[in-house]
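Schema walk-through. Below, the input block comes first and the output block second. Nothing else is stored per chain. Lengths vary across the set, and this one has 517 residues.
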Amino acid sequence: MKLTYNRESSKEKWTIMQYLRDFDLMTAFAYALRESPTELSVENLLDIMGQLEEKGIYKPTSKKPQKGEKAEKNINTALFRSVQIAWYMFGYYDKNSNKRKQKKFVFSPLGNLLLDNIEDKTKSSKIFLTMLFSLAFRQQFSMMNRQFNLYPYRLLFQLLKDPRLEGKLYSDEATYLLMFTKTIDKQKYEGLVEDILEVRKISPKVKYELFKQNEGVMALAIQEWKYACGMLQSANIVDWVVPKESIGSLAQGVTTSRHAKKPTMRAYKMDYISVRADMDAYLNILLSNYPYDVIPYTAEEQESGFEKDIIFRLYNFYPTELLVELGMPTVKERKLTAMLNQVDIINEYAYNKYMDLTGTGFEYVLRDAFNLFSDVEAEKIGGAGKTDIECLYISPKAKKKFDVEAKSRNKKLSEINPRRLREHRESVQSRYTLIVAPSFASGVKADIEKELAVLIESNVLSQYLYQYICAEAKRDTDSILISYRDLEEMVLDNLGKDLTPVLREFIFDKYGHNCAV
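--- output ---
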């Protein structure tokens, strides 16, 4: 083997969600969650799914109960598995927050786009494929080793397009090799392909004996891979060929005196997947523009426990290539895309992706971001003794100035000089300062106490803009107008503090949907 694979623990492999493997059921549940005016219940879930069934969007796999009857298993599974649609990038909820009694689910731009096109199977399949390109491992809803740092589906689709593999990937190759790949670059990719070709030469009986060496872990991998294949097949992204005969069975779980339940047997078969012909051309476009070897997390993010708001960045994916593919670039849609693209690059420059030693790139990006507000005029100033960005908020009553300090870096902002902030404000006669950075050390929070300034993490600012813009785009008008008013009120109420948690809660409260998780 060219690469090293650790199969000793389930945490060393990819973790794939097992609650649902039916794309129509998952999207129907997501649609019901978004359309439900209150907390999603069995009754209104069934009502909405009934409407989708009448339209031919959702076909139940079992008899749909009448009112008053107990819901079938697949309905109950969907109802209590909001985590499934979060895992598949429809949106997110704050799994670490104890402040709210009711969990709020916030849909991503692509999640909303898919549900807006739920009646068009071709469009929904391509939107879902695009969503998979933004799914990164490690994943906040999965218990995985912190060493994982890759886009798994990009890698999977790259392998399916590799001519050396003849356009197919067998389940044993995926479960024995691919699912234990933690990071990838071009050199490792070549090693992975060579390892797959080597495994492909081994007889199924011999491979079965290899699987038995780590039986429990491999049995779980086989089961999870079936869910992945089922979801991709039902979404019309891949063809999945499954033979009737099994090579053997693997035991998942063990019998103990404490747990009398017998192990679950998982069948090992020589099934394989391949990309559907009607998805091939668009998949090539995605792989060309969003390659498999991009690293999703910085070193600092990789060590985090996802308590931070790095998850916001993962759900901001909204590529122009998709809208072109769907034939959707109307004037309003082009404006929406342009606005979201301006928001999307906030995090690229905040984390100094382009190694800009001067930091001016981030200043220009934030200037453009604040100019997205219809009632703000932002101008980049910069230079010694000057603020980075001067902003004029044109409220209904008066014109008011504030300034923005852009702190681009790939680590936490560790300190800030309050005196310099005051000098910058005085130079432009600003009322307060917004300090925007990827994250802040506790010392910075102490530095701004009693100051006319607030801290905002770039990920939360970008997600606020994303949700606000998408919400306004749904209005039946030709324009997309967002106001600085709400943000101004939050700033004035929290001077001298970190505004990030306040803004985060605002996002969940205003744009979230009640869910049971």
